[in-house]
Specification:
Helix content is 52%, strand content 0%. With 207 residues, it is mostly helical.
């Protein structure tokens, strides 16, 4: 009796071990099967034909009036840099603060200085390596250009300069335009342009 019990016990142990070893394989097989069924589920490829709809098009038109989330661009001035008459905005659509200027400087140094250099003279590292030199931001034409013009150039590109609309969000394009105006003013500033509370300190440094 003892031998029979031991033999049965061993068989049961082996059977249990075999089942335990098979469980991961069964789970893997089941998971692959489910994934394959999901992959092969009935569906239409974009712009393919379909006999289900009367017009024969599988891709359905958007519901009238549908606007993608985050793309309700009702403020044309903010998103185009132009006034209703088509002229460029000669100002900014928000109050320019020190935080805005610092943000503009940061974005300018990242995206613009490679060509325009950090002073805006057009001698960036890419230009020194053979890329076409952009005009200096300090020429009369650009010093007299409205901020809306710089916003549009950043958005749409100009000449060999590509559009940066994908890399730079609208708020930052305006911030860069504000910082460009600061760069332009800095090249022709005089002591009279410095606030009185800071003028004495600057004069001391210049002595």
């Amino acid at each position: 009796m003892t031998r029979v019990r031991k033999t049965n016990s061993r068989k049961q142990t082996r059977r249990a071990c075999s089942l335990l070893l098979m469980l991961p394989l069964l789970a893997l097989t089941s998971g692959c099967e489910i994934r394959q069924r999901m992959y092969n589920q009935p569906r239409h490829k974009p712009l393919s034909l379909s006999e289900f709809y009367a017009d024969g098009a599988a891709s359905r038109p958007l519901v009238e009036g549908t606007v993608a989330r985050g793309f309700m661009k009702e403020d044309d001035v903010f998103y185009t840099g132009r006034l209703p008459d088509g002229s460029f905005v000669d100002g900014f659509p928000f109050e320019v603060s020190m935080d805005i200027l610092q943000r503009g400087q940061e974005r300018y140094n990242i995206y613009c200085s490679t060509c325009h250099d950090r002073a805006g003279t057009g001698n960036g590292y890419i230009v020194l390596r053979g890329y076409k030199q952009p005009p200096s931001l300090h020429i009369d034409r650009l010093r007299e250009s409205a901020p809306g013009y710089f916003y549009q150039v950043i958005s749409q590109g100009y000449g060999v300069m590509p559009s940066y609309a994908y890399q730079i969000k609208p708020e930052d394009r305006w911030a860069i335009a504000a910082y460009i105006r600061v760069l332009q003013l800095s090249q022709r500033a005089t002591l009279d342009d410095v606030p009185a509370q800071e003028r004495a300190q600057l004069e001391a440094l210049l002595q």
